Known about the structure:
Elements: E1 4-12, H1 19-24, E2 34-42, H2 49-56, E3 60-63, H3 70-83, E4 88-92, H4 103-111, E5 117-128, H5 132-149, E6 160-164, H6 165-170, H7 180-189, E7 194-202, H8 213-229, H9 246-252
Parallel strand pairs: 1-2, 1-4, 2-3, 5-7
Antiparallel strand pairs: 4-6, 5-6
Amino acid sequence: MKKQQVIVFLPAxxxxxxxxxxxxxxxxxxxxxxxxxxxxxxxxxxxHTVSAAKSAGADFVVSFEKNRGLGAAVRAGLKECFERGAxxxxxxxxxxxxxxxxxxxxxxxxxxxxxDYTMGSRFLGTIKGMKLHRxxxxxxxxxxxxxxxxxxxxxxxxxxxxxxxQALKHGEIIHDYNYAQVLTFNLVRQGFRVKxxxxxxxxxxxxxxxxxxxxxxSSVFPAIWKELKRPVxxxxxxxxxxxLNHMEIQNKTTQKTNSQPLHAK
Length: 265
């Protein structure tokens, strides 16, 4: 049986202090029928992010000449994963806040045929040290998603996500500043099944975030409105495309997932 290729991509902007550790913590061998590669999308970094990534074992690096924003980096990551033949693409931030060791947990619902798009949920798992304004902003935008999609979502801004090959192909991001809300709206409206996985989150200890609260508020509302106003076509989703033997998945992943499905309101 041909192995399924998982490409883990990391959008990175000036993350030389943390990206190496993140890459080294990505599980490479957790299932006999899965092959894992690592791709870095360098968003115009001016430090040693690229050399640090290569030293840590990144398989591919794609660099922008100048900083284009997180949305553009994630869009490029989805495109590169698809064009490089990935069966599944996984996104994880390069700042070390999200647990790379839990990537197998994020993948399990896709391998089990239960989901096409998964998100690591900080609020279903553990979350410590997040500033109050970021926590409140997350609550607000996530609640807005719940109302519009008529689904319970607990962490709409997660920086850790996994995509089936069809989701990689059809997912669209129409905003260069951030991707979180518009991508979920886009995929769910096309008929892709989404599921959240509890993760262990820690606030970054190196570098600084280039997302500002004021910029986020002023930029994301127009992007959400634009996404919801434009028509999308429903995709005929192949729910068996990545299915592996369920018991084998449980035995080979780093830990058994105790995820909760999203429920229609």
